[in-house]
User: Fold this.
Amino acid sequence: MISKKMIIFSSDYMIVLLCSRDKEHVGREMLGMIKNLYPEIPCNSIIARRIHPEKKGIRVLGIAESFKKYNKKSTLAGVVMRRDLIIDGMAYGFATIEGDDATDSIISMHRLLAREDINCIMLDGLVISMYNIIDGERVAEETDLPIIAITFEDSRGLEDSIRHHFDDYQEKLERYHRLGRREQVILKTGKNLFIRCWGLDQRRASNIIDSFTLQGSIPEPIRIAKLAARSHANALNYELEKN
Assistant:
């Protein structure tokens, strides 16, 4: 009899079949293949690249944003960083202030890099650019990578702010609610973070964050991405003001 939880190893991937209540999943083609092979198991699935946080070769794509209040778009910067903190790739994108295109922009940034050696995407929050909401589940599906989204402070939620900011707020609220709850983790530095993740569990996500955090609570891929986004946005704003 086949159990409801099964682990299958191949040379490149670990496939874990999980009960349908679990939120982790694989890309659509792989999921279809697994369901054909095991139709008797009602499940979602996860396909996770082997991630060993202690290895120098693990690479994380950290993405953060920057914008001024008068901007119509925010600048997104993506930094590819190895476990030994060597930076070996960068990409830029844009997200519309108060818009709904942040998810597509992040997926496009990953495609633009055309890298097969990125092991995980780390996001500086999921609600950016004045309520431009990133769909973490869709990013995981489209990139076939685990996603970790971090925030630095606890909050009671953004429902009231969204209702106040938009006249037609129902769709924004639905997108926000689909993000699910955040989980608190304590880093090796003693600092707290709040995370949402897709394609990996909370323990592994916490280990990856620890591997890229030197001090405080900001992982290095996010810290450098913030600096890159701010510098790029400042340069664009300077050119606009000059003209």
